[in-house]
């Protein structure tokens, strides 16, 4: 008989801290993520979790070297359907509403001496907690349009729980390589943490782009360390979309950076796009016509 769990904000937050939810390669991660997602949907659909229960979806797992079946039923999706906000747009595609503004009084910093748009460049994309399922970041960075636009620039993809692997990859690059670090949701927090750490080690990244980042332990001191670890920091906030979706709710519960980076980031863009739509967030321009993607290209 399958276990039941009360649908409360506390229980679901605890589930998101479970290694089965966030650890890449965990044999139960896909099914556990699906279960947590259904729990949040039930929480919203049942009037903030009052008297609601959700049952674990049936799946097969390996425990102590033996296969075992975990029984369950699937709760129906609430109105609005999947959290994925449609197909991701490649660079330059689509027509997007103008964001509110960028940070007042900021300008694009000068690159390191000797670094130009033609310099060897490594662009690292870091997916969020749901990217293993929805592939918002992975599909964007591997699309033919983006590969074409990146041109001579190398690109690599990592999960949000691979901070050490990201730092190793950067450490193996020659000093003359321009490093661009792009992270979405929890991956944005990972990218920020990596930049802050590398700054303390004396090798700040050239460009950090955090796309509606989600994390905990936020403070002015943390934002200052992020800024010190990046010659340029572009923060993109999903804010002001005509309609919100389930991904916006999950991001809010997880702890979005929100307006916190304003005044610390060299450019703060507020894009009227939902949290899940990484491609549109990254390509939405500010009121000067600059987007996160244009800064990847050094424009």
UniProtKB/TrEMBL annotation:
Matches recorded under SUPFAM superfamilies: alpha/beta-Hydrolases (SSF53474)
Positions of the UniProt region annotated as Disordered: 64-117
A molecular function (GO) term: hydrolase activity
Record carries keyword Hydrolase: yes
Keywords: Hydrolase
Protein name: Alpha/beta hydrolase
Species assigned in the record: Roseicella aquatilis
